[in-house]
Structures are given as structure tokens and as C-alpha cells.
Task: structure prediction
Amino acid sequence: MVMVQESITSDLPGEVNKKDPLIPLSLWLDQTSRIMKYRRFGRTEWQVSEVGYGMWGLAGWTNTDKAEVAVALDKAVELGCNFFDTAWAYGDGVSERILADLLKRHASKRLYAATKVPPKDRNWPPVKGNSIRNVFPADYLREYTEKSLQNLDVDTIDLLQLHVWEDAWAGEDEWKSVVQRLKEEGKIRAFGLSLNRWEPENGMEAIRTGLVDAVQVIYNIFDQNPEDELFPLCRNEDIGVIARVPFDEGGLIGHLTKDTRFPEHDWRAGYFCEENLIPTIQHADALKPLVPSGSNLPEMALRFILSNPDVATVIPGMRQVKHVDANIKSSALGPLDQGLINALRPHRWVRKPTSWSM
Ligand SMILES: NC(=O)c1ccc[n+]([C@@H]2O[C@H](COP(=O)([O-])OP(=O)(O)OC[C@H]3O[C@@H](n4cnc5c(N)ncnc54)[C@H](OP(=O)(O)O)[C@@H]3O)[C@@H](O)[C@H]2O)c1
Result:
């Protein structure tokens, strides 16, 4: 069915009109919101969905509806999402086991499972000056690889990441030999680092060892710093880049108010403490006038990240079906106009790690 729908398309943002004015709007949106794009994941050569799935919130944040999470995960797979980021620390294995169930439900599809070994001393961010022997000793790395293999119920973990990192550890030999052995034994396919919040350069020495296949880094409209040094190095070394926390834990959704409070046991209660909440609201408010007509702040935030070809996959945390739909639609809409990207550049917000930033 092909027809002209002048009355509807005239309400659309300019870039939508240009796509194909002859296809009815509802059909166009339905079709295009189901087109996932894939990107090469560095030297692993995997083709990963440019919108992946962050699995922290579903096993630790308040107001998680388990039944809806399962539907949201299935929906993501149905819409072409094939990259899932979890960690042992997300509910002490709960999130990993949710991923195991998903892998089983979609056994015919190639889904990539990324998980993380928690620091032995359970410090996020890591304590400066601490020895890697207190954080990731060899026997402990092996023990947690086995735990994750069991939780995920797989023979091989696609991507095993360390959940914190200090570049002072890059010259140590123990972690390197464990990583090499785990690969040789077929327990992991690739190895990565999850870089500490707001320290994108704290991992570059490790990347230069040649043993790191992927990095996970906070990259969003506020946190543009990875563009300075980390991304060029990743390009040169052919490292898969995972952009995490695309919405600044919710700050870039634009719905926080000065009265927003999270329950004490929810990690966001600390992150959005008064010291951070008020400036976050101010920074998000400053972005609102830039949101293109017909779009919204989270969509613009996600498309900002996807506009950067250095990113292989972005992993929004999602527990709701409507968010899966919306975020995959952002991928279908493609990169932002260069003019808008330029206008977003000055909204970079440089922050330093603190006790509440984790
Ligand atoms: N140290 C580390 O390695 C580390 C640290 C943090 C995060 N991560 C990884 O990165 C992933 C993403 O970060 P995150 O989950 O912390 O934060 P995030 O992705 O910045 O924000 C997640 C929040 O955004 C909401 N949301 C998602 N899509 C939305 C949409 N289209 N419209 C409105 N709201 C939307 C989610 O709501 P609902 O949940 O209700 O759907 C959730 O409240 C994590 O899940 C985890 O896999 C790793």
C-alpha cells in the first residue's frame, strides 16, 4: 500500500518527511522502528547491535517489575538487539541468571553476553594506590569467571570485563597471564575493562598491552571526554567501544525535579544527592530547548552517542517495553544533524570522581 498522507507528514519533524513521503506514517514508523543497525565490535569482528542492553537496573533498582523485564528483554531480541551487558555484582548473580534465561529462550540467535568480575575489595571507585593483588588476584579472577559461567549457563563468556580498573596495574603480569589462559582454555572469547566513572583515560596503558579487546566507558552529552584521547586510541588499536550510562543514570531523561528522592537502598539515592541533583536538573534543562520538534531528550541523548562512529554499541538500562521500543527507534532515526551535534558540544560537563559517583 502506497499513498500520500500530506496531513500527517506535515506534522512530522523535517527529517522524517524527507525519508519517504509516499509511505503512510504508521507503516513507516512501524517498519523503520524495527530496523536495527549493526557495528563491528573492534578486533573481535562481532557484528553487534548499535543499541545493546544494560542489565544493571533490572536487578537492583527499585520498582522493577520482573514480568515486564522479561517481556522487555524478549522485545529487544525481537527488534534485533544482540548485545547484553551484565555483571556478577548486579544482584550477586541475579542479572546474569536473567540473561541466562534469555539466552535459552532465544537459543537460535547469536546473542553476545558481556559480564564483569567485581573487585575483591568491593570498592567502586577503586581505592587509589591499592594493589591489584587486593582487587583482582589470579585465583579470584578464575573463581569469578567460573561463577559467571555458571550463572550465565554457557561454556564460554563472550566478553569478560573487570568492573573497575587502575592503570597503575597495567604493568603487572598476573592479570595478563590469567586473561591469556582463560582465552586459551576457551572460557572467554574476549576481555575488556569497564573504566571508572569520569576517568576515561584511566585504562589507556592497559589497552596498549594488546590484551584488552573492549572498553566500557561513560559517554553521553554530558560526558564527552572519551572523545579526547580514549576514542582515538581505541580506533588505532581496534578496540570495541561500549558506551554506557547514555542517560546519566536518568539525568538525561529530563524528568528529575528538586523533590526527586530515591529509596535509601537504591544506588541512585547517593548519585542524585543534593550536590549532584540540582546541577543535573540545571544541565538537563539547558538542553531542552535544543530538542528537535517531534523528538524528546532521551532520544536526542541516544542519537548523540550513536552519531559517533567510534562507538560500537550503546547500552541503555531498560526495564520497560516502551523504553526498548523508543531506544531502538532512536537507532533507526540515525545520526543527529551536524548542526545539532555542534550545538550540543558546549554542554559537556566535566566532573571528577567523588564518594557518591561510584
Ligand atoms: N561500572 C560499570 O561497569 C557500570 C556502571 C553503570 C552502568 N553500567 C552498565 O551500563 C548500563 C546503562 O547504564 P544505567 O542503566 O546505569 O543508566 P542509563 O542507561 O543512563 O539510564 C537508565 C535509566 O533510563 C531509563 N530509560 C531508558 N530508556 C529510556 C527512554 N527511552 N525514555 C525514558 N527513560 C528511559 C531507564 O528506565 P527503566 O529502567 O524504567 O526502563 C532507567 O531508569 C547499565 O545497565 C549497565 O549495564 C556499568
